[in-house]
Amino acid sequence: MTSIRDIAKLAGASVTTVSRVINNSGYVSAATRARVEQAIAALAFTPNANARRMRSGNSLMVGVVLPALDVPFFGILAHVIEQELFRRGLQALICCTNESPDQEARYISMLLSQQVDGVLAASVLEDSTQYQRLVDAGIPIVAIDRALPGLAAVSVAADHLTGGRMMAEHLLGLGHRRFAVIGAPQHSPPVQARVQGATERLAEAGLAAQVVLGSAHDFDACRELALGILGSSVDHRPTAVIGTTDIAAIGAIHAAIGLGLVVPDDVSVIGFDDLPEARYVLPALTTVAQPFRQIGVQAVAQLAARIAGDVVELAALPLRLVVRDTTAPPR
Amino acid sequence: MTSIRDIAKLAGASVTTVSRVINNSGYVSAATRARVEQAIAALAFTPNANARRMRSGNSLMVGVVLPALDVPFFGILAHVIEQELFRRGLQALICCTNESPDQEARYISMLLSQQVDGVLAASVLEDSTQYQRLVDAGIPIVAIDRALPGLAAVSVAADHLTGGRMMAEHLLGLGHRRFAVIGAPQHSPPVQARVQGATERLAEAGLAAQVVLGSAHDFDACRELALGILGSSVDHRPTAVIGTTDIAAIGAIHAAIGLGLVVPDDVSVIGFDDLPEARYVLPALTTVAQPFRQIGVQAVAQLAARIAGDVVELAALPLRLVVRDTTAPPR
DNA sequence: TTGTACGCGTTATCAG
DNA sequence: CTGATAACGCGTACAA
C-alpha cells in the first residue's frame, strides 16, 4: 500500500505538506505543491479513507435502511437517495432488511460499528430499542416513508392517510357505493394508513368497504385476493376497488379481466404511488401520485442538515390524483 | 467514543483479553470472558470497523457499480447482490453511475480510497483505464451483465447474443417475415448483443429487420419509436416486433394498441428479461427470461472466491423462452 | 492464560 | 511557508 509517507519521500517534502496538498489546507508554495502532485500521480496514490476517518472522526458514510430494492418504489427511492448523497460527498451504505426485524437489528449493529454519520430509515420494526442505540451513539436519524415508532425523529413521508381519503373521494365522486380495499403488504404502516384513510372517508359517506390485505409485496397475491372479491354475484360485487399500491391495483385489474369483467365499466380500480408500472397496464391505471423523488431529496437534505447541526424546514410533499383509464361512474 | 480500552478498564482486564473475547481468538478463562462481556453490554460497546480495517488490511466492503437502481432489472440485481454479500459478512457499497462515464470514474476513485476488497461492475465505460486502476491495486473484479472492455475479468452475464437469436427464432417459427427491432438504451452492450443476435438469425433466414434504437431506459421513448414503425401502411408494416427489453416491448404494445392494432393478431411482440412487469401488461408479454437472481448469486460467489484466492467454476446461466399472449402466427 | 507496546495512514497541533 | 510528532482504536508479537 503506497501511503502519504511514500509521496513525501519521493517529493522531498514532509507528510504534513503532502496532507496539506491533498486537502487544500494551509499554505503550500506552488513549487512544492507541483512536486507533490507529480509524486501522487507517479505512484497512483489514493488517500486511505479508513485512516482518514479514524483521525477525523466523521466517516462520510450514511446508512440507508430499506425493506428492499427489488420493489419498484424502494428501488426508485434508493436511487434518488444514493445520488443525492454522492453529490454531497457522502457514501450510502444500503441495507435491505427484507422485512426481517432480525436482519434489521444486525444491520444496525453494523452501521454502529461503521461509525456512520447518519441514518435514513424506512423501518419494519415495531419498537424503538434498535434505533435508540443509534440515538444513544449521537447519530442523527431521519425516518423515510414512515415514522419510526417511539422515536422523536423527523419523518419525511407522504401523508398516506390523506392519500387513502383521496382514493375514496375520487370514487365516491364518480358515484360508486360498493367498495373493496385490496392490498399488501399488510404489516406496512403506510399501507395501513391508506386503508384507514379510505375507510374513514367511506364511513363519512355512510358506506363500508370489504377490506382484504395480503402479506407480500406481490402482484399474484393481490390478484388472488381480488379474484375472491370480484367473483361474487353481480349484486354483491363491488363496483370500485381501491388498491393500496399500484401493484395491488394492477393485480385487481388482472383479476377483473380474468373474470370477464370490463374495466372500468364493470369495475373501477384506483392505485397509489404512480409508479412507471401504472402506465404499463391497459387500461392505464388511475392512481394517487406520491412524490417519491422529492421524498428522497428531502430526506437527504434533512439528514445532511442534522449532520451539520442545522435544522431546515421540511417542504410539503403533495399528493396528486392522476386520472387515467381505470375509473368511471358505475353503470 | 467508548473503546476497547474502556472495556478493559471496567472489566479489570487487558485490551488483549478484550480483543480476544470479541474475536473468539486465543485463550480466555470463562470468568474473565464473562466480566468482559458484561462490561461490553454495560457500555453498549461496538468495535470500530475503521480501526479494525486499518489493522487487518481487509475492509470487508465490496463495490457494486451499476447504471441505476430505478430500472427494474438493476434494482432486482442490486437486491440479490446486497443480500448475498451481507450473508457473507460483506458490506455493499452501491454506486449508481447513471450511465455517466465521469461519475463512474469518480466512483472508482472512491472505491479505491475505501480500500474495498473487491468490485462487482456493470460498466458503461468503453475503455479499461478506470478499471485498470483497480486491477493495479490488486483488487479482484467480477464483471456483471456485460464484459469489461479490454479487461481479462470474469464476466457473469447471460448470453445476450443467443437471447437475441431466441427472440427471432420464436417469431420465425410462427411464420413471420416482416420484422422490426425496437429498443433502448442504444449504448448498452447487452442490448447491442441482443440486436445482433436477432438480426443474425433473421439474416440466416434471408430476412432483414428495421432496427430503431433509442437512448433512454425509457418506456415513452420506445413507444414513440414503435409508433413511427407501426404507423406505416399495412403492406409495409412489420408483423412482428422484437423488443430489446421487456420495457421496450411494452412500449411497442402500447404503440400498437394506440394505433388501433390488435396484439398479437395484427402484430406480435416479444421482449427480453422476464421482469415482473412483463405480466402486468395485457395481453401478457411473451419474452426471453434471463436468470437475473442467479446472475447476482453467481457474481457474488465468483467475487468471494477470488477475494479468498480461490477459483470456482462458473455455472451456466440458461435463457428460457416464456410464451405468453403477445405472439401468434401472422394473419 | 494475561499484559505491554507498537504500528496501520491520516490529520491537527505546535514549533520553527 | 514547512516539518516533527502525537493521537485516532484496534490487533498482535512478544514477554511474563
Coarse morphology of chain A: elongated
CATH superfamily of the largest domain in chain A: Response regulator
Q: At the third CATH level, what is the topology name of the largest domain in chain A? A: Rossmann fold
- CATH hierarchy class name of the largest domain in chain A: Alpha Beta
The number of distinct structural domains of chain A comes to 3
Proportion of β residues of chain A? 15-25%
Report the uncertain regions of chain A.
none
Strand order of the largest sheet of chain A: 7-6-8-9-10-11
Reported for the largest beta sheet of chain A, the result is:
6 strands, mixed
Work out the number of β strands of chain A. 11
Amino- and carboxy-terminal Cα gap of chain A: 75 Å
Indicate the structural class of chain A.
alpha/beta
Helix content range of the residues of chain A, please? 40-55%
CATH-scheme architecture of the largest domain in chain A: 3-Layer(aba) Sandwich
* Secondary-structure element series of chain A: HHHHEHEHEHEEHEHEHEHEEHE
Q: Mean pLDDT across all residues of chain A, rounded?
A: 95
- Tally the helices of chain A: 12
Instruction: Kindly report the greatest chain-chain contact and the residue count on each side.
Output: A-B, 54 and 53 residues
> Assembly state here?
homodimer
Radius of gyration of chain A using CA atoms only: 26 Å
Overview of this protein structure:
- The structure is a homodimer of 331-residue chains.
- With 331 residues, the first copy, chain A, is α/β, with parallel strands linked by helices.
- In chain A, 44% of the residues lie in helices and 15% in strands.
- Chain A has twelve helices and eleven strands.
- Chain A has a six-stranded mixed sheet, with helices on both faces.
- In chain A, helix 9 links the parallel strand 6 and strand 7.
- In chain A, helix 1 crosses helix 3 and helix 10 packs across helix 11.
- Chain A is elongated, with a radius of gyration of 26 Å.
- Chain A binds a DNA duplex (16 and 16 nucleotides) through helix 2 and helix 4.
